[in-house]
Amino acid sequence: MSAAFVHGFILALGLILPLGVQNVFVFNQGAVQPSFFKALPAIITASVCDTVLISLAVFGVSVVVLEFFWLKAVFMLVGIGFLIYMGIVTWRSKPTVESEDGLFTAKKQIIFAVSVSLLNPHAILDTIGVIGTSSLNYTGAGKAAFSIACILVSWVWFTGLAIIGRGIGRLDQSGRFLTLLNKVSAVIMWGVAVYIVQSLV
Under 8 Å CB-to-CB from 54, ≥6 apart: which residues? Predict the structure, then answer.
């Protein structure tokens, strides 16, 4: 059981650490929101979405999506559309740490967090392919420990990411770093969209 927990912890850490759309969004909200509390909608939503994806991957429910090509294609096309749209919105946004004008409301944070978490086919397929496949090595308590470890990493990581973002946001009063971060985030979103298009072709 302890081995399963360690395996799940290290595996989830390896998957979540690379710079991606979800990470950049949570970090950005931690940086631009006037308080850590105001960034909680993004943190909690991203964590809950990861919890759902990991649970589905471990228990094999999401494998159904992979069994039907047309369903997978439709899902990926919707994801591509959202990634392109979010990339445009993020590129155009001008974050500021001195005013609350233009900040994401709780509702908008939730919508964007859900979008970058559940409408990112690349991330979902990684979750199913890596975490789902790895969980087949365990049953019962071992599988539960593996799942809990993966989920725990997500909650701790996103919370820590927002805290680090808030610290950098307070240091970057000019907003230049955050503006650059938005540009990088937009490019990453478009890059993932292009990658998905290539995988479909």
Answer: 12, 127, 131, 147, 150, 151, 154
Q: Look up residue 96 and give its DSSP letter.
A: -
**pLDDT (tens digit per residue) in 142-193:** 888 999 999 999 999 999 999 998 888 787 666 677 777 778 777 877 877 7
Q: 140: left (phi > 0), else alpha (psi -120 to 50), else beta? A: left
Q: Give Cα 36 to chain centroid, integer Å.
A: 18
Phi-psi region of 138 (alpha: psi -120 to 50; beta: other; left: phi over 0): beta
Residue keyed to tokens 């990991």: 54
Closest by alpha carbon to 103, among 21, 165, 39, 189?
Answer: 39
Instruction: Pick the closest to residue 46 from 16, 67, 69 (CA basis).
Output: 16
Q: Cβ neighbours of residue 86 under 8 Å, at least 6 residues apart?
A: 21, 112, 115, 116, 189
| DSSP, residue by residue, 113-182 | HHHHHHS-HHHHHHIIIIIIHHGGG--HHHHHHHHHHHHHHHHHHHHHHHHHHHHHHHH-TT-HHHHHHH
The pTM assigned to this predicted structure is 0.75
Whether 113 and 42 have beta carbons less than 8 Å apart is answered as yes
User: Rounded CA gap, 153 and 187, in Å?
Assistant: 26
